[in-house]
Amino acid sequence: MRTEQALLTTLLEAERELQAAIRSGDTGALDLLLDDRVVYTGPDGRCLTKEEDLEAHRSRYLAVEVFDQRDLQVTVVGSTGITHVLALLQGTAGGEPFTAYLRYTRTWVHADGTWRVLAAHASAVPNREPAADR
Known about the structure:
Blueprint: H1 4-24, H2 27-33, E1 34-41, E2 47-49, H3 50-58, E3 62-77, E4 80-93, E5 96-111, E6 114-125, H4 130-133
Parallel strand pairs: 1-6
Antiparallel strand pairs: 1-2, 3-4, 4-5, 5-6
Helix pairs in contact: 1-2
């Protein structure tokens, strides 16, 4: 049985891996980190399935060049984890360049020794640093 501290450490690692996969467009890594039932709600309110999210990265419809984490809060309760991330993102979406501060809330589940994202939500936030965001 894993301790809460060990689960917290591995969840932090999984969050870093997810951010790196988003930045590099690594759909293989994203496939492993996203639960098959994941629902992603974007800043525009649209909901995407895992396959739709992967296709956006695979086709480079969404290409994130910068994922600069500004703040990270992590909570683990049993086999459930929550990450709250504030990040500056830059890249292209549908061929158009974008720059945005986004607040991500991700719900992770730990099963078979692996963390996977079950639900994710992103909201646009004003251009500000973490201390002013709370």
